[in-house]
Design goal:
The protein is α/β, with parallel strands linked by helices. The protein contains 14 helices and 25 strands. Strands 4-3-2-1-13-14 form a six-stranded mixed beta sheet, with helices on one face. Strands 6-7-9-10-12-11 form a six-stranded mixed beta sheet. It has a five-stranded mixed beta sheet with strand order 19-16-23-18-24. The relative contact order is 0.12.
Length: 487
């Protein structure tokens, strides 16, 4: 595909936040069809040099990815002939040591300018310079500093994430005399309002007009039209491989003439599935199906777990999950974050695969001795954005929380009841949380102070066990546990 009859020097194909989606799930772009499209781009000389780029949150999020701890995705990225990727916060979910072993399997390069490995034993590059038609192109990668609390802290021991602005400033200074013609950032920063401005991609573009293109991810934003921020073109495709972005340019032309288009699966209808890529996926799935297709329950109703719902309200799925954790741990109460749930489960038979798709992060449960005042602070954190969506959104079982959303953040919670009794701020309670939150994930820093009591298996395993052993009547209704009162 080209946009017109122009002979372009460069064509970039950009993906971000696919979260393990490769097989056309929910009308996303399937990798077999994507490969055919890519090869057509590469074989048409009018497109010039084609670069295939991914901006992170790639290796985790579906059973297809999770069962192999990301290796299945690496296999496919190698086959699709990727050129450059950066790392998303969820790409650390299997731990940094495992991530390094995956990177060793790659035929493409991983870039992360602001990642400091204190052990200095990784083959992640800060940047890479290539020369094409006598033009020097510098590709560099950037990770979000939110990684400190948007993956489990145990996954990033001995890692440091430098401020993106500082990292780019140093890069530009160091390469000042290298005659770089094009600076291309591959970033996992995002432009979400909940992200500090200094860590957003738009802020980076405003601060450094020398950056020509930013291929961004993290906030799941669909940039549908060409977006120029202070002389920098910024691309982001949304999420889950629903779209890919195509950027084409002539190196001697002004940036206003660069071409940008977001395309979806419908745009690729005329492209055939590539049999080679199909076979790779089939062979991997065949090794997984004996486990993933096992039926564990039946529901007459859809279990609501979509991103837009679980990040701003209670649903029947969030309550099923927290009830399962309460059943397993016999704790006083349960608190998890809505962002840990990613997909709804359709009416009908529920399989292990459904649970893994919906709860993809392999977070384990820990019970902690939490002081009432620290629990209140945690709930304030989980309700600070309500009714706006936020990954930290509190989802609970075993307690009721009364709060006023008109009050300022962190001053909203007025009443907390555990087992129908109001909590006493100086008393301690046995609270079940994910290990991710226990170590301060999603800014639940008040939970760090609690004493660990017991450790349990992953959330998805607990839910599977619950559905297998407890006959529950799934309902579309919810039992209001987060009660917002305006007064």
């Amino acid at each position: 595909m080209i946009f017109d009859n122009t002979n372009y020097d460069l064509t970039f194909v950009h993906l971000n936040d696919i979260h393990g989606r490769v097989n056309g799930e929910n009308n996303s772009i399937s990798f077999p069809k994507l490969f055919t499209f890519l090869e057509s781009l590469r074989n048409n000389k009018k497109n010039g040099k084609v670069f295939l780029i991914d901006s992170g949150d790639t290796l985790h999020g579906t059973p297809f990815a999770n069962f192999s701890k990301g290796e299945s995705i690496i296999t496919l990225f190698n086959a699709l002939k990727f050129d450059y990727v950066t790392i998303g916060n969820h790409d650390f979910n299997y731990g940094f040591n495992h991530l390094k072993s995956l990177i060793n399997l790659q035929t493409y390069k991983t870039l992360a300018l602001n990642l400091i490995d204190k052990n200095n034993n990784t083959n992640i590059l800060p940047y890479d310079i290539v020369t094409f038609n006598k033009f020097n192109i510098c590709f560099f990668g950037l990770l979000t500093p939110e990684t400190y609390y948007k993956t489990n802290s145990k996954n990033i021991i001995n890692l440091e994430f430098i401020n993106p602005e500082e990292s780019v400033k140093n890069l530009l200074n160091n390469l000042e005399n290298k005659n770089i013609d094009l600076f291309v950032g591959i970033t996992h920063l995002g432009c979400d309002k909940s992200t500090k401005t200094i860590n957003q991609s738009f802020n980076l573009a405003n601060a450094f007009p020398k950056i020509d293109i930013i291929f961004d991810g993290h906030s799941h934003t669909e940039i549908k039209e060409k977006c120029i921020v202070n002389n920098t073109l910024v691309s982001q495709t949304g999420s889950y491989n629903k779209n890919i972005a195509i950027i084409q340019l002539k190196l001697n032309d002004k940036k206003s003439k660069w071409k940008y288009k977001l395309i979806n699966s419908n745009d690729l209808d005329n492209y055939e599935n590539n049999l080679y890529i199909e076979n790779i996926i089939t062979n991997i799935q065949n090794t997984q199906n004996s486990i993933s297709k096992t039926t564990i329950a039946y529901s007459k109703f859809t279990l609501i777990g979509d991103r837009e719902s679980v990040r701003c309200k209670e649903t029947n799925l969030t309550q099923l999950i927290t009830d399962a954790i309460l059943w397993k741990t016999n704790s006083d109460a349960v608190l998890i974050n809505g962002g840990s749930i990613r997909e709804s489960i359709s009416q009908g038979y529920i399989t292990i695969e459904d649970i893994f798709k919906s709860i993809p992060f392999n977070n384990h449960i820990v019970t902690k001795k939490i002081k009432g005042s620290n629990l209140k602070e945690a709930l304030e954190n989980g309700l600070k954005a309500f009714p706006e969506p936020l990954g930290a959104m509190a989802q609970v079982s075993g307690m009721r929380v009364v709060f006023n959303p008109n009050n300022p953040p962190y001053k909203r919670v007025s009443e907390i009841y555990i087992k129908n009794n109001p909590i006493i701020l100086d008393n301690y309670y046995n609270i079940a949380v994910t290990d991710f939150m226990s170590s301060g994930g999603e800014e639940y820093t008040s939970l760090i102070q609690g004493e660990n009591i017991n450790y349990y298996s992953s959330v998805e395993d607990i839910v599977i066990d619950y559905l297998k052993n407890i006959k529950i009547e799934i309902s579309p209704q919810i039992d209001s546990r987060l009660i917002h009162k305006i007064y």
